[in-house]
Amino acid sequence: MTLVNKTFTKALIVFAMVLCVWTTAADAQATNALFTVEDVKVDVTAENALKAREQAFEQAQLQAFQELTKRMLSSPQQTDYSNLPVQTISALVQDYEVKNEKLSAKRYIGTYTFRFRDTAVKRYFSQKGQQYTDVPSRPILILPFLETSSGMELWDNNPWMDAWASTPGLAGGLVPLVVPVGDLADVSDLGEDEALTYRQRNLYSLVERYGASEAVIAIAKPEGTGLNIQLYRTDRARPEYVHQIMARAVANQSESALYASGVAKVKEALRQDWKKKTVVDSTQSASTIQAHVSFASLQEWAAFQRNLNRARGVKNIQLKALSPRDAYIAIEYEGTLDRLRIALQQVDLLLEQPRVQNAASQNGLNADYSQGLLDGYYGNKDSANAVYELRSSRNARGGSRQNLIRPQSGETIQPQPASPGSNVPPSREYYKSQF
After folding, report:
1. pLDDT tens for residues 236-291?
2. Architecture of the structural domain at 140-277+405-431
3. Which helix (H) or strand (E) holds 218?
4. Which CATH class is domain 33-132?
5. Exposed (0-12), middle (13-18) or buried (19+): which is 36, by Cβ within 10 Å?
């Protein structure tokens, strides 16, 4: 064996050991934004300042855990945890911060941030038999257009944009949202009159500048005392209408409060839709697939490992074989295969259709079966013959986009014409239900 080959072999062994270490440490990943609840405000009055502070701390933990359950649990699974013993919640907390404290003789005011232990929280939900998601989406760029009698507004004189910009906590949670600042570069990429006629290349530039995976166009139109909000997906060749939300005004509600309620409804619709795609049934056992990875250098292989071990929902990774340009791994995962694909997309990895080996290849069968046939034939745990292709999506334009919003059940995606508003959905009743 030459010196070069010996060196490379040693390097491969080292990288294989690194993968094994990372695999066993997968559950010890740092708590991410999904398990961090910020801006928990409490205001408690008691017999004295000490008691008020103690009660406020307990109340803050309850509020934070309630917010966490809203993020992670599917709608049918959400319950009222206001009476949950605070000791149970404390056991799930990793650490916390408090700021803006104010004390008087009998009153305490403060704002908390809690970071929960991800494995402990998931174990708690599993013990309760609840369906949850621990796969946060990549950031989504919100483009809030306001439709008025004089046309579309985006960057100027837009209270709908102002409502988004002034909403706290958009960057955290299950579906992080980003609002553009409207600088010269933004205005150059997207004009006021380009809500549904934008140039695809310019939109990609805007999305990538904000580190987002895709953009969602949210067109709000005042109707009577409320807002008619229409959402469009942008990850395909043209904007496509997918959902309508009505934000209705309540008595004595200000304009700013109405727009804020519209923001909350859109946030919740996006969150519920994402949960439908990524929820896992804690009562189901894990599944395993085989995957093939190609790489051009050890540095590329190391970067690939780092991304793979950031993927949520991956329980275990085993290295099966390693060569100077290829690796074969086994991935143990929670939930469905589609959920795994989505989780991998969030860390810039694409899981493509498998190659059929062993018996199929020995019999000269064509390995390029349709995805539907492969999913049907290898849709169980005994899938040793199916080897999926796993590759990085960073170099593929649009390859890592996650198709956040989808049509509702029974809806048809409607490509929009060049003129905004000239193609109205069939009827309000048809689209009035939430995601």
Report:
1. 878 999 999 999 988 888 999 999 999 999 999 999 899 888 988 877 788 899 99
2. 3-Layer(aba) Sandwich (3.40)
3. strand 214-223
4. alpha beta
5. middle
